[in-house]
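TL;DR need structure tokens for one chain.
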Amino acid sequence: MSASINASAQNLSDYQWKNRILLVFGNEKNEELIEKQRAIFNAQESELKKRDLIVFVNPKSRGMVKLSNGANFEVILIGKDGGVKKRKTELMSTDGLFAIVDAMPMRQSEMKGNN
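>> reply
TL;DR here they are.
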């Protein structure tokens, strides 16, 4: 998946005002959950791209890691402004994710501009 990145040297500031970020964190005991989450996002790659979403799985960047609450499994949505918009400690459905993103004022503006 081109939208999924296992990053070690990325900074959130590199994406601010350009992309929304999905951070997926999990430990070895939750590898199955990580893979299920990756599959959920992979199945909707074109929809992720439409919403300027980039997925990072277990990123090593200090700026990204410090956002984690240390849960065994966690998915964090970060808006283009760099703020945390949603945090889940269970699988995140794309329906739920897209509803959150599509309700954001910046996304509303983007959708109006694309029509």
